[in-house]
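We treat protein structure as text, and this decision shapes the records that our systems exchange. We quote a single record here, exactly as it is kept in our systems:
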Amino acid sequence: MFANPFNRAVTVLDGRVTVHDESAIASPAMDKLVHTAVFGDPDDRDDARWLIWEIGQAVGVQPSSIHDLYLARGRGECGGFTVPAMNIRGMAYDTGRSLFRAAIKLKVGALILEIARSEIAYTDQRPAEYVAVMLAAALREGFRGPVFIQGDHFQVNAKKFAVDPVTEVNGVKQLAREAIAAGFYNIDVDTSTLVDLSKPTLKEQQRTNPEGVNISIGGEIGEVGTQNSTVEELVTYMDGFNETLKKRSPGTEGLSKISVQSGTTHGGVVLPDGSIADVKIDFDTLARLSKVAREKYGLSGAVQHGASTLPDSAFHNFPRTETAEIHLATNFQTMLYDNISTEFRNEIYEWLRENAKDERKASDTDEQFFYKTRKKALGPFKKRFWELPADVRARLARAYEEKFGFLFTQLAVANTRAVVDRFVRPVEQHRPQPHPDLAVVEAAPDDADLSD
């Protein structure tokens, strides 16, 4: 039976949580709670996730929509920064803790934690788990304020769409419902895979893109890794989107941002020796598209995916071009694999040889194959990553905190807590207690060892 790990510092009465001592939720007791939220049996897991959510509501760490901040940017009321949207794939709790430590030091409010449709599957992190872990990381480090959690690339599979469009679209809708219920109040719907470049006109190419929903939502006009987006494509997409939205959902707010392609590739281009090819990103394209998005449509600007593998010298260019948001993922995964033991890494690679062999191209070297497929091991080895030796976790924590601090500085989101507080008003939302007997379960003694 689930036991409240905070003892008398956090109490539950009639389904409401009261935090009597906030230092307790920034202690090893939170480590114990979040471990249960991920690896506990189903009932204990649900109780732990509920308690994390309600503690967040009590102290002001609440999932929120970034929509109002982005519309304010579209109106010209703020700007000069690029919001990092970071996909946390492996060792999620410790990585999240490093991220929030860096955010607190630099007074960052404008940041997004996200996970893509494909990542949810291969990292074994359903939306409810992801929200619980990110909130727990924020609470553990003493972060306060809105937490922006995003569904990234809620993507329509082009091949499946061609066979059965209704089922494929409904799959994305169902995932969005699950994610929103969990606390994802920012959704990037990606139907760029459906753009048919063989059609003779832009309107025909873009016709199958989605309608909007009442949540902070982003669209995507160019699939990352294909040809660069143009102003004409953006205008065609937005005019078609707004026309459809007006007809089918009058009065509904539309997009707050638009994702484009300007030269990057998800994960980078892997060379035969395992290194990543240099990326030539077109910042002029980003600047033009962001300007049109803001001035013509009132959006926050353009969004750049696949930016994680860019050289460090590139990141300061994003706020300079008023890029609204960039997405970062692969480099954090690379840091994780670079810091585990050779024995553990070899164990994972042997697993990939058997379980990902269908994804290997005849021309792939071992280095290319492992680099492209090792993300698929994050789910099967999730518990092992969470429970890495203390010295490895400490080394990674330092490396991640340094990396996040660098990115926050280069992207000019330091000191954005004030602008977030100006435009974003989190809404307190309470959830029903899964098992009401939680309140009367005997608490751990004061001297209990609450560490993992």
